[in-house]
Amino acid sequence: MAQTPQLKTNRHDTHSTTTQGGSWSTKRIATLAVLCTVGFITSFIEIPIFPLAAWLKFDPSGIVALVAGFAFGPGTGVLVAVLTWFVHLLFVFDPYGVLMAILSLVSLVAPASAIYRHDLTLGGAVKGMVVGGLCSLIICVLANLVVTPLYTAVSISDVAAMIVPILIPFNLIKIILECVGCALIYKPISKALSA
């Protein structure tokens, strides 16, 4: 007797959000939602970390985006970073701060997680964080030169004068905190995500 081929369905209870070749399961979407929520909540934790520039603050949302990138790839990490800050913008209207946060995180998370994805070792993670950190540092300095004069009364020459004493040290400390935070929590979280 010939067997009847099974039909593929798009029923809501199949717990899949893609076709056979896709990789976005319901579990992955739920995990993404949780990561975005945690990123959003932590974006409101503002810690002054550099006494010379009390207006520049560190928030742990970058750690969440970096963990997402390491766990699911650069696209997901970037998505978590961008969604976190777009939602933040709905509650605190600060387009300048949001733009700077997105540029900072995307330039860190994308290269770091792309390198780690191709070398899933501690060495790959460290190399990714170093390259991502350098990219983020460069982007933050350049973006400050362009964006800050557009949104504030600070001139380009005043921003340029802040590069060495304020912008580079602050962003280095911020990047190190994000990378160390990710390194400390990534393994336990990745085990929980794969369970």
Number of discrete domains: 1
Mean pLDDT: 87
Write down the CATH class.
Answer: Mainly Alpha
Number of strands: 2
Poorly predicted segments: 4-21
CATH topology: Arp2/3 complex 21 kDa subunit ARPC3
Number of helices: 6
Reported for the largest beta sheet, the result is: 2 strands, antiparallel
Structural class designation: mainly alpha
What distance lies between the first and last C-alpha atoms, to the nearest angstrom?
41 Å
The strands making up the biggest β-sheet line up spatially as: 1-2
Helix content: over 70%
Beta strand %: under 5%
Shape: globular
Radius of gyration: 20 Å
CATH architectural grouping: Orthogonal Bundle
What is the H/E string?
HEEHHHHH
Description of the molecule:
This protein is an all-alpha fold and 195 residues long. It has one domain: Arp2/3 complex 21 kDa subunit ARPC3, CATH 1.10.1760.20. The protein is 72% helix and 2% strand. The chain is built from 6 helices and 2 strands. It has helices spanning 26-42, 61-72, 74-91, 95-118, 122-151, 156-194; strands spanning 47-48, 57-58. A two-stranded antiparallel sheet has the order 1-2. A hairpin with an 8-residue loop joins strand 1 (47-48) and strand 2. Helix 1 crosses helix 3, helix 3 runs antiparallel to helix 4 (95-118) and helix 5 packs antiparallel against helix 6 (156-194). The longest helix is centred in the C-terminal third of the chain and has 39 residues, at 156-194. Mean pLDDT is 87; it is low at 4-21.
Sum up the structure in keywords.
195 residues; mainly alpha; 2% strand; Arp2/3 complex 21 kDa subunit ARPC3; 2 strands
